[in-house]
Amino acid sequence: MQNEGPLLEELIDRLGETPEDFLADPLIGRTGSVHVVAVVGDLLRQLGETPRLGELSRFTSSHPQQDRNRLSVVLLLCWLLSADWFHRTKLSKDQLLQTLETTSDELSNQVASKKFIADPDRREELVRTTLARLGYRPAGETIAQAQDRLSTLSSAERARVMKAAQIAEERARQIREALARKAAEESADKWTRE
Amino acid sequence: MRPEIISDQDRYPTLTAEGQQMLRFLREHPHAPIFRNESGNRLTTDDLEQVRKFEKELELSESGWLENEVPSWIEEFVEQCLTAVPFYRRYGSPPNALQELPTISRGDLSRDIAKFVPDSAPIDRLINFRTSGTTGHPLLLASHPIVAANYLALHKRALRRFGIELRHGRGQVGVVLVGFQKKCFTYVSVTPTMNESGLVKINLYPTDWRDINDRAKYLDSLATEIYTGDPIAFAELAKLPLLSKPRALLSTSMMLAPSMREHLEERFGCPVLDLYSMNEAGPIAVADPAVGGHALLQPQMYVEILDEDGRTVSTGERGEIVLTGGFNFCLPLLRYRTGDYASLRFNGREVVLNGLEGRPPVRFKTMSGEQLNNIEVTHSLQRFAIPQFTLHQDSSSNLLFRFQGSTQQERDVRRVLLELFGSGQQLTIERVESFEGKVVQYTTEMVEAP
Asked: How many C-beta neighbours within 10 Å does residue B265 have?
């Protein structure tokens, strides 16, 4: 966050205008339609870089159950990073790839991709996290202000996610126990058994 | 853990004096079999209201959709799944089209069923159903007494296609579930929505009876309106000198060969319905010669047919049956690959599964010359954590057991299989890295005596 970056509002507004193509499902195996590797490749070329195929392998997957949300977030990041400000700012290929990878990993574990469009706090979090990973902060903010705001946004969300995960794990444990109990073993009447 | 004590009040919460009398009749009949287990409907008064509501709604609703159309309820269903079901939640946001979502398989369910139970499902009322795992993944599935009871409304819908309205009621027996296995869950119960008519689940295997001749005597005393079971159990039932006539037979669990169906219809003088049904989804479709295939039964069950790569095939092309929806609110299915194959045909809004290939029954031969149902093998091996296996018997009766997974249990598996098939059985056990393509779990080259 050492460097001052673009106006926060401009990037937040940009996310709000994400085109349908970037909201479509990533192509994973036979599901989805958007070739994420191609989108990342286009982004890098737009920003003056020449990506090698091997460098993009992290944006492919054959596991839609695990990676659908992550790659959906990558698409949102590609749209965000193709804003004019990033064209004007000389970012290295490594920086961009690293940011796409770590930010999508981090955020997709917590939130469904389209919430980064629909929910104002999550929109702001996505923008601030991306800038921070690239070493920038929003224009007009001090480092302390930017750190404080990002930490407020992400820690609140992280706390919510942690709490939800704890509840879900506890519930899953109770379900496993309930199903293992004799009452469940005894089952209930069905006219046919499969 | 202290063993849980379950009372008749838990098993039959709304039981009346007449219901009690029916249970006594079924249990204490002089020719009754040895009942090995206890179970019940577990339906409370509130549950019964829900069950009746489901039946009424089902009577008024149509199942199906038009060709190239996706039913309107799908969008909301997908959104609910992605919001309220832990496993689906990680998919992220709802897609523009159902086909954009990943598919799931039996393996996903078997890894951790708890992740498929929606946040809203009441844990204290959960029941489970185990499946024998013809595709190699034994399953423990979450369900609810209301879901189990709702099967009947779907059976009635299937029977109605054949002009049959159930008539039985108080003081009569509605259904006998027959099995023919060495080991089988057996019990008596009543069906509250049919005025506590009797329900009995029996095993025709001789060791479950004090006298083998009791089988026909008991069943004649019951004079049930419906028999349900699999083709192997029906084959045994057909051998009994029964005088009573059921109004229909409902066949599930295994493929019912047309010749077997004709034989049973002739023997019992009633329609024999071939239901396509599975624990994961309940009764899905019924074979109806009038439409030349299996007609779908559930209004909220969408069927896709996919090729090996997960692509939707053209109408009329064969592929794997993939389910979305269902009435088990403890286990909503989102693009569930069944491992069964068919093509789709449309008669207006009516959707027909054409050329359904389910799970064909396989009978192995033991060293003593007895026939052994493949379910026996599955039951015996379900205690082992084997992800997938196949068993083949060649024409010289030698067995080849192939499995994927750790070799640690190999010795125990060998012991169990030899116990089942008898000493002197030739058995080769092979570990494989993985099975390619669709696994046909049980196969035999032994020719059955006519």
From this structure: 14
Work out the minimum CA distance from A187 to partner chain B, whole angstroms: 5
For chain B, which residues make up each domain, given as ranges? Answer: 8-357, 363-444
Q: Is A142 helix (H, G, I), strand (E, B) or coil?
A: coil
Helix (H) or strand (E) holding B347: strand B333-347
Residues of chain B neighbouring A192 (CB-CB closer than 8 A)? 151, 155, 177, 228, 250, 252, 275, 277, 283
Q: Does A115 touch chain B (CB under 8 A)?
A: yes
Å between A51 CA and nearest CA of chain B: 28
pLDDT over 80 (residue B159):
yes
- Tens digits of per-residue pLDDT, B320-365? 999 999 999 999 999 999 988 899 999 999 999 998 875 555 789 9
Find residue B250's DSSP bridge partners.
B228, B273
The Cα of A140 is separated from the nearest Cα of chain B by a number of Å equal to 33
Q: Looking at chain A, how many residues does it have?
A: 194
| CB-based contact A194 B131, cutoff 8 Å | yes
Q: How far apart are CA B145 and CA B126, in angstroms?
A: 8
**Are the beta carbons of B279 and A66 separated by less than 8 Å?**
no
Neighbours of B311 (CB within 10 A): 12
Q: B-chain residues within 8 Å CB-CB of A187?
A: 39, 127-129, 143, 148
* CATH architecture entry for B363-444: 2-Layer Sandwich (3.30)
Distance CA B77, CA B324 (A): 9
Its pTM stands at: 0.80
Cα–Cα distance measured from residue B177 to residue B249, given in angstroms and rounded to the nearest whole number: 10
B122: closest chain A residue by CA: A175
Is 3.40.50.12780 the CATH number for B8-357? yes
String of b and e for B219-233 (b: at least 16 CB within 10 Å)?
Answer: bebbebbbbbbbbbb
Distance from CA of B240 to the nearest CA of A (A): 21
Residue B143 · residue B128 · CB < 8 Å: yes
